[in-house]
What does this fold into?
Amino acid sequence: MNSLGETITITVFSDEDLEPVWINAENSNITLIGKDKERIITIYGSGWLFSLQNNSTLTLDNNIVLKGYEGNPGSLVKVTDNAVLIMKGNSKITDNSTSYGGGVSIDKNGRFIMQDTSSVTNNVSTYYGGGVYITNDANAEFIMMDNSTVINNRGYSGGGGVYIGSGSKFIMQNNSNVSNNNAVNGNGGGVSINEGIFIMKDNSFVSFNHALNYGDGIVVNKSTFNMEDNVIIYGNKGRFGGGVYINNGSIFLKKGGTINGKEDTENDNRLV
It folds into this structure.
C-alpha cells in the first residue's frame, strides 16, 4: 500500500489469511471494516501483520480481528515514524507470541488509540509488554478509552499487559480496563512504566493482574503517575501483593480513586 496520501476503506466479507503489509506512503489512511459479524485476519507468513510508517493511519473497525500465532518473530502491528493505529467497534488484536509487544509495538513518535470496546487479548511476549510495548526514547503515546481492554496477556520479563519505555505517555480514561495480565517472571503485572508518564482518570481500572515480584497491578519506575477521578485499582495479587509499586524517585499524584493493597516505605519505595 504505497499511494501518496490515499484514503481507502476496505470491507472484509469473510475470514482471511494475509501476508505482511507495509503501510508506508506519507499520510495514507486505511480503514478495515468487518461485514455483519466478526471477521478474522490471520497472518500468513512471519513478522508484523501490519507495519505503519511515515504519518500513515490504520483503523480497525466493526469486529475486525487480527490474529497471530505462537513464536511469530514480530508484533501483529508495528507503529513508528509518526504513524497512528486506531481500534474501535469491537476490534481485537489477539493470539500472538513474540519477544517484545505480543500484540502491538510502538516506536518513534507512534500513537495507539483504543476506543469503543476494542481489545488486545491473549498475547505473549517472552520479554516485555505482553499486550502492548513502547520502546525506550520513542516519544510515543498510548490512549485507552470508551470501555477498551487489555486483558489476558503475558509478558515474561515484565509489563504483562502494557510496557511503557522512557519518554512516552500512557493515558487510561472513560472506563478503560487493564485486567488479568501476568508478568510471569518480573514486575508490573498490569502496567510497567519506566521514565515515562502514566495518567488514569474517568472511571478506568486496573484489576486482577499478577506479577512474580513487585507491582502486581502497576510498577512505576523513575516516572510520574497521576491518579484522578473515580479510578479503581483492585484485586491484583502476587508474591508481594500491592496494587501500585512506586520506585526510584517516581512521582505519585493521587487526586482521587481507590487502591486495594498495602504500603511499604522501606528504601523509599511504596507498595500500596
